[in-house]
Amino acid sequence: MPWVLSELPLNWVLPCVVTSAFCVWLRSLHKHNQECLWKLRARLGQPGISGPPRDHLRVLSQNMWCTNSWGAVQKGSKGPEVRKRFDALVNAALEGDYDVLLLQELFIYRMAYFFMTVEEVVYLTERLEAAGYVYHSNLAYNVPVVLGQSSGLAIFSKHPFVEWGGHTFTTHSLKDSLNAKGFVHATVSIGRELFFFYSTHLDSSGRKPDVKKKQVDQVAKHVSRVLPSHTAIVAGDFNICSHTPGMRSLYTHLVLAMGGMDLAPVFTDHPVTHRSGRTLDHIFIGGGQYSVRDITFKTPVRFESGLPGIPVSDHNGLAVTLKLQSPIA
Q1: What pTM, to 2 d.p., does this model score?
Q2: Is the dihedral angle over the CA atoms 256, 230, 328, 90 positive or is it negative?
Q3: Are residues 152 and 22 in the same domain?
């Protein structure tokens, strides 16, 4: 390099040095990003290693509020507060003794070589793995190639995955054009039984009901492939309020679509799940009549982060305990 630079005109030397340093930095950044994405790959397991027998199954659905919008930055969904909120979620998961976590809004935003929030998502993944949730879906399965935001969806489990899959919705509004929203699903082996879990996040636009209907139908179509032989649990941030007058027809469509798959809403009393006072998050359960005996416990949960005025999320979680027909081993 020195002898090459010596042959160049003096006014070319500095631009060449800067360009070379920039290329080295980009290569290092790309390597770091690839290492982060590798850590987010799916972790499967072998059936039959579920731990001691249990007669119940505890499930938590939670929107994690890890986004890149400017308004959210101001309210603590980015920066050092994120990891503190994630720590609080991990502690709450352990205290609640949840078997499966269905998470939303763990967004990874990409702009060419630049990734936003990927390190925060890796941090949560490693914390949950250390806490015993060693099986999980690929949290970066649909990160855009050049520009946009991933689905932000994940499923974590203490019990082994037989398989998992991720899907991006085929339709979306202009508002969500840079968001690769969709749904992830996992087949979880608990003893000799298989349970099918779904985590989804629908379009955020309130002016495109047809878009949400098509997204609901896409989820329902996939669920139809596993019912009625096994229990299916579909949960997430549907962005459909069950008691807002303008969304009642949408909610009716959601319930009918899930009902067509023999899935029933768990929370029929419409608890508030968002700070706006709306009920945007839902859980549906059905199928597997030989696995689940009853729902013994259900409640919306609000986790505190320990930070002044900043909860774990702007959404309340939904917690469900299922009574099983026989102890799971």
Answers
A1: 0.90
A2: negative
A3: no
Q: Indicate whether 132 and 28 sit together in one domain.
A: no
> Would you say the C-alpha torsion 304, 317, 43, 79 has a positive or negative sign?
negative
Q: Calculate the CA dihedral of residues 281, 286, 288, 293 and round it to 10 degrees.
A: 90
Q: Tell me how far apart the alpha carbons of residues 213 and 224 are, in angstroms, rounded to a whole number.
A: 16
Q: Considering its fold, how many domains does the chain have in total?
A: 2
| Cis previous bond, 311, omega within 30 | no
Q: What kind and span of H or E run contains 185? A: strand 182-190
- Indicate if 47 and 27 belong to the same structural domain: no
* 104-130 confidence digits (pLDDT tens): 999 998 888 788 888 899 999 999 999
Q: How far apart are CA 239 and CA 280, in angstroms?
A: 5
| Closest by CA position to 105, among listed 177, 173, 175, 153 | 153
CA 129, CA 85: separation in Å to the nearest integer? 17
For residues 186 and 232, the answer to whether their CB atoms sit within 8 Å is no
Q: Is 183 helix (H, G, I), strand (E, B) or coil?
A: strand
Range of the domain at 210: 43-328
- Do β-strands 231-237 and 281-286 pair in parallel, antiparallel, or remain unpaired? antiparallel
- 197 and 320, same domain (yes or no): yes
- Burial level of 56, CB count in 10 A (0-12/13-18/19+)? middle
